[in-house]
User: Which sequence fits this backbone?
């Protein structure tokens, strides 16, 4: 199909001329994928390794099934969701009727910042707008469907951004859905086979400019792209402006969700699919966005304990992801009244406790020549210029840990992070394979509770 054009419209002509069409021939990055993909990823992102995803919106009010509640109720009419509404809400109740109940009355951004800092995370990504279209900031382009006009009556994005920046050195990022399930402008463009761009002109582009200019996020986490080509969203034009002229042009990172068929092919880092974890080394930087709640990204009131990943699960995901050149973006779903419930807080603080001991093997590392061990299962490797690291998920039953990959020499030394004494090992120098004698610990003297890291100096 022919590439859609920007038709003239009075209200936004100055904005679009200044912003989207300020990409001239002398600009560093041009609005095409070859040029956009040539931009180096800012170093802070690869060094960070671990971030927190936050799914929060009107869907947090029903907090049933998942954050696609509205679509499942009115779009595909999923039986259990329809029944939930019939059993618990009056006839004629609409999804927008949930918005006044999204009060966030217990939302304390400073408390959230403290929890995130304790987790060890280096960046966060907050939902600015999900597919329901409700904006968690006072958008000029979402009248009476934003967090200032209805519900919380406050700027949720701005309040959290300020707390994060005042209390931590965590990078602040924003998730933003390109499409909205039931926006009439989007539905009209869709009916026109995306040959018109009324929704983009009047909603999408102005919103993106708003959040970038107002909140200066270091991450733009795009989503909701799959129904239309990138030419409808004008993704490369936006990214060219973002990289050339925006207030975050030198620090911002973006993902790969910018149009149908774009994932895992173009953009800053790749997400490919939700919960993407290939288990093998990837050449292009990628991110494993996943949920502590196995079923939902948003909060669920009726989630049983068995639906939450435990710390063994989470550390295995972190180790396998970082070993293969990825970042782990671990999701929580706050409540409609603004609380991070204890099970999410516990997981975050426990991850922080583990990282206090073992972060040396995670942050600012690079992939090693091997990602997992060839002899013993449950071992993932990372690397720095000064040492390689074996992340051991399971303590060996006989205290003898066999590592099939490292090649030792006469100067090889091994330590366990959090334990000051050198470890005893045996092996044949210049040949792969080391047997490590693990220290004798009592439960109260273990360096950490879940996985243990062997620092290996002078190995190949």
Assistant:
């Amino acid at each position: 199909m022919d590439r859609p054009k920007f038709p003239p419209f009075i209200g936004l002509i100055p904005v679009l001329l200044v912003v989207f069409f300020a990409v001239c021939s002398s600009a560093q990055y041009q609005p095409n994928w070859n040029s956009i993909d040539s931009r180096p990823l800012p170093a802070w992102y690869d060094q960070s390794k671990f971030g927190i995803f936050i799914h929060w919106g009107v869907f947090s009010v029903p907090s049933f099934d998942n954050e696609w509640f509205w679509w499942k109720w009115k779009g595909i009419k999923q039986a259990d969701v329809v029944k939930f509404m019939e059993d618990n809400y009056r006839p004629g109740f609409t999804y927008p009727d949930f918005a006044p109940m999204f009060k966030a009355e217990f939302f304390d951004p400073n408390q959230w910042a403290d929890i995130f800092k304790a987790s060890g995370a280096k960046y966060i990504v907050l939902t600015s707008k999900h597919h329901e279209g409700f904006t968690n900031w006072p958008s000029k382009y979402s009248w009476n469907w934003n967090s200032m006009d209805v519900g919380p009556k406050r700027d949720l994005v701005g309040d959290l951004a300020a707390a994060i920046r005042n209390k931590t050195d965590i990078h602040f990022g924003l998730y933003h859905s390109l499409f909205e399930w039931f926006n009439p402008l989007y539905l009209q463009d869709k009916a026109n086979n995306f040959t018109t761009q009324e929704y983009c002109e009047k909603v999408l582009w102005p919103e993106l400019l708003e959040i970038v200019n107002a909140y200066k996020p270091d991450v733009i986490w795009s989503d909701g792209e799959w129904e239309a080509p990138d030419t409808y969203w004008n993704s490369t034009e936006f990214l060219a402006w973002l990289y050339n002229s925006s207030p975050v042009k030198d620090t911002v990172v973006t993902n790969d969700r910018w149009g149908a068929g774009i994932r895992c092919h173009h953009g800053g880092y790749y997400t490919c699919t939700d919960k993407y974890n290939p288990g093998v080394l990837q050449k292009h930087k990628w991110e494993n966005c996943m949920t502590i709640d196995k079923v939902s990204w948003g909060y669920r009131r009726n989630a049983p304990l068995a639906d939450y990943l435990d710390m063994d699960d989470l550390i295995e995901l972190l180790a396998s992801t970082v070993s293969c050149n990825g970042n782990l973006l671990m999701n929580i779903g706050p409540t409609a009244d603004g609380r991070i419930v204890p099970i999410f807080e516990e997981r975050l603080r426990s991850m922080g406790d583990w990282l206090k001991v073992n972060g040396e093997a995670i942050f600012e590392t690079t992939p090693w020549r091997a990602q997992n061990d060839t002899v013993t299962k449950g071992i993932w490797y990372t690397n720095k210029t000064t040492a390689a690291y074996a992340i051991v998920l399971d303590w060996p039953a006989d205290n003898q840990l066999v590592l099939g990959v490292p090649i030792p020499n006469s100067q090889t030394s091994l330590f366990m992070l959090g334990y000051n004494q050198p470890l005893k090992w045996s092996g044949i120098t210049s040949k792969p394979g080391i047997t490590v004698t693990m220290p004798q610990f009592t439960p109260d003297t273990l360096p950490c509770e879940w996985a243990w890291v062997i620092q290996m100096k002078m190995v190949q």
